[in-house]
Amino acid sequence: MADLYLRALEAERRKLWAECRLKGLAKGTPARLRIEELDKLLAEHRTKRAG
Q: Domain of life, per the record (predicted)?
């Protein structure tokens, strides 16, 4: 079964990362901080799923 929460987090991260690369945003900008937050959420979710 598809994990919709995981897919939504990954999609948001990909979108933000593409935007950051396109615009050349530096570390510390709100978009880059959100990517870091998403990375933490993804890691937590994956460890929770793993058991």
A: Bacteria
